[in-house]
Batch of 2 targets.
Target 1
Amino acid sequence: MEKKYLNVVCAVIHDGDRFLCTQRLRKGPDYIAEHWEFPGGKVKEGENDYEALRRELHEEMDWNIYVGAKLGSIEHEYPDFIVRLTAYDCMAHDKDFKLLEHIDACWLRPEEFTKLNWTEADAALIKQLWK
């Protein structure tokens, strides 16, 4: 059986030397439920990455962001699907977001990322971006 392939985008949003990290809801497979990630979501058919990222953050956080340059991309195979995760450098004019689809959020420096239990795809992306 062929695994489902997901094209996912995420926002790397910084405030000075800290980056926004969000914790997933308690739903989905154990290997991603309640794990930490950079906010974002799936790219729908007919959308480009920028449109998808702006839509996802508006839907999940009621937050308008500016999507900047592509930072990097990885592919990761989970037991049930394969994900292509692409990160974009993003900015927001304020920190006035709501956690509509996440349990928690925090702002951390890259050296503090190890404190969190990241999804495997986000962990691989972190290794690529902060070598």
Target 2
Amino acid sequence: MLYFIIVNYYSEPLIIKLLKSLIKIKLIPKEVIIIDNSNSDSNIIFSRFLSLKLKRIKSDHNIGFGRACNLGLKYIYSQDTKALVWLLNPDTCLSPSIIDQASSFFNQYPEISILGTLIYSKDQKIWFGGGQFNRNTGAIFAQNLFTLSSPKPYYVCDWVSGCSMIINFNHFQKCPQFDPNYFLYYEDFDFCQRYQSQGHLVAVTDHISVIHEVSAITNRNLRSKFYHSTYSYLFTLERYTAKPVFYLRFLRLIIYAFILLPVKPAIALGKITGAWHYIRKSISGVLPFTH
């Protein structure tokens, strides 16, 4: 059974557009779970899409992407430990045949635990085609793996985007969870790295694709965006790279932030405050997440 998890943070118009694309799909998903991180009234969503089985899980406040997804994952796991769970950003759109494609894909390749999809931008350019990680340099980057040859219609990679990620519960003896230390950004990278280190297969395919309105939500507030991305980036480097690599990248980040300050103050201040928040958390001792 295929379930969807969508995290809402004042994104009702985008979610309505996404659900309209789901309505057109012949094979209706088992359930669509909307995790509501905002204080807005999302009842309008439910009243307009009675043909879909929708469930709203309300958080007390904005708890971030990973923690919100955890609420949905726990709910689904309590209902169905064999489910396929598709995490989707509100600013995505699906084709009418997508559920058939996803179900058929996992029937043929059940060995995959975490699957990323091809993600197009609105202008039909590839926005995500696989994630790579160089531990020696600390480089975390997206690469179009579909230009390479592969004996199967998927490519094993280091991480996939949480914008469109399918989790195969069949391979998990207990409910998979995102690290709650992340509020936003790099939680998908950490999720893939942790479970990959436990022997789970992480892959990306171009047989399933979505369209993504890039940064339609996060670009509303650039300072907040770069605050969260900087903190999460440093937290990730600390966890997955050697100290010399971490210190070098930290120094480069700070220097670049101050260079940006006169021309792009919102971005620069976001980076600086994110780095300061990381330092404070590091000094106070953020406990590592284990699952």
